[in-house]
Amino acid sequence: MAVTRTFSIIKPDATRRNLTGAVTKMLEEADLRVIASKRIQMTKEQAEGFYAVHAERPFFNDLVAFMTSGPVVVQVLEGEDAVLRNRKIMGATNPKEADEGTIRRTYAESIEANSAHGSDSDENAAIEIAYFFNEDEIVG
Fold first, then answer.
1. Is 68 part of any domain?
2. Does the annotation mark 54 as catalytic?
3. Domain assignment of residue 89, yes or no
4. What is the tally of structural domains in the chain?
5. Full 3-state SS string of 71-103
6. Per-residue pLDDT of the chain (140 residues; tens, 9 = 90+)
7. Residues annotated in a binding site for ATP
8. Is 23 helix (H, G, I), strand (E, B) or coil?
9. What stretch of H or E contains 130?
C-alpha cells in the first residue's frame, strides 16, 4: 500500500461539543497523520461550492445551513491508503449503521449531524484538499 492523502472535516456538531481532540485522536490511532489542520467558519459560498455536487438534491440547503452553523476543522490526513482508512474509522453515514468504535457511531447526533466528512476517492481528496489548503499550508 502506498502512503496517500485524504481530506477530513470535523463538522459543527462535533466542534460545538468540544470533540475536536477526541475525533483527531481516533484518526491518529487509525494510523492517519494530520499534516494540515485549521479551524474555520465556513461561509455560505464556501459550503455551496464544496457541496455543489449535491446542489440538485432536496437536502442541499439544509446541508449548507448545517455546515455554516458553527466552526469546522478541515484537515489533510496522510497514511497508507488514507481514503479507505479514514472512511473505515469514520463509519457509515448513518450512525445507527456504523460499526462500534467508529467516529460516527461514537459521536454523531444524527444522520445529518454525523460529526465527520471524509473524501470518497483519491481524486476527490485532491480536489477537496485544494479547496481549503494551499500547498504551503501542508507541512507533512
1. yes
2. no
3. yes
4. 1
5. CEEEEEEEEECHHHHHHHHHCCCCCCCCCCCCH
6. 799 999 999 999 999 999 999 999 999 999 999 999 999 999 999 999 999 999 999 999 999 999 999 999 999 999 999 999 999 999 999 999 999 999 999 999 999 999 999 999 999 999 999 999 999 999 97
7. 11, 59, 87, 93, 104, 114
8. helix
9. helix 122-132
Place of cell 455560505: 44
CA distance 86 to 26: 10
CB contact at 8 A, 77 and 32: yes
Alpha carbon distance 54, 66 (integer Å):
14
Assign residue 73 the CATH number of its domain.
3.30.70.141
Task: Give the range of the structural domain holding residue 122, as residue numbers without chain letter.
Answer: 3-135
Q: Which of 5, 85, 105, 117 is flagged as catalytic?
A: 117
In a domain, 140, yes or no: no
Q: Which residues are annotated as a binding site?
A: 11, 59, 87, 93, 104, 114
